[in-house]
Recover the amino acids of this structure.
């Protein structure tokens, strides 16, 4: 299982990567204007791609067929590491198939059930992004939905990863892992929160207290 950091901050990415806790980055809410000559977003993509040898998932800012194709092609030109996130809507199916045939790596978003997962995989997606918050706001179990999508893709022998987006707690993170998610996307704040348990402070205090009780070693005279 891989962890993708939801951040465009280089220091945050460096910190997670140096600890072995970032296998990629994924942007979910940032619209990248790749056509603007002064686009700071494009520059940041180039910086991240140069410094880190892992996937960089970037969303298109379009929902119509022609615009999806054009923007995805522009994003893919930034680096071989770019994974283009494309919303699974009716207009996106043809450009997804065409882009996949041209070698563009695609992650389908707006995937909320197993049937959509199959459609996305057959259209050429190499990953499907499942947003837990949207599912649970709708009354569906995020973990159960992840497991269903994973099982149906495996049963059909589709080479398509299941990406769980934005668990908010250690419990949700563990549920995603148990459900078989291939990738879990985390914000830096959530990643830090996974390290610390409510009992951590008590354990540290006890550890320090035990250290203080150890007999002092005598220095040789």
């Amino acid at each position: 299982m891989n962890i993708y950091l939801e951040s465009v901050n280089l220091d945050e990415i460096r910190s997670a990567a140096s600890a072995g806790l970032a296998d990629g980055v994924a942007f979910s809410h940032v619209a990248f204007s790749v056509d603007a000559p002064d686009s700071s977003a494009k520059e940041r993509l180039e910086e991240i791609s140069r410094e880190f040898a892992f996937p960089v998932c970037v969303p298109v800012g379009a929902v119509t067929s022609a615009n999806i194709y054009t923007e995805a092609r522009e994003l893919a030109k930034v680096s071989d590491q770019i994974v283009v996130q494309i919303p699974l809507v009716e207009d996106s199916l043809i450009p997804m198939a065409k882009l996949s045939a041209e070698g563009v790596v695609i992650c389908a978003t707006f995937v909320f059930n197993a049937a959509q997962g199959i459609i996305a995989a057959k259209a050429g997606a190499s990953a499907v992004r499942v947003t837990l918050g949207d599912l649970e706001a709708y009354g569906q179990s995020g973990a159960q939905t992840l497991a269903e999508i994973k099982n149906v893709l495996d049963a059909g022998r589709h080479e398509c990863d299941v990406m769980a987006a934005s668990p908010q707690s250690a419990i949700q993170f563990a549920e995603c892992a148990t459900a078989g998610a291939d990738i879990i996307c985390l914000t830096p704040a959530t990643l830090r929160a996974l390290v610390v348990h409510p009992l951590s402070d008590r354990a540290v205090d006890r550890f320090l207290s035990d250290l203080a009780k150890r007999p002092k070693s005598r220095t040789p005279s």
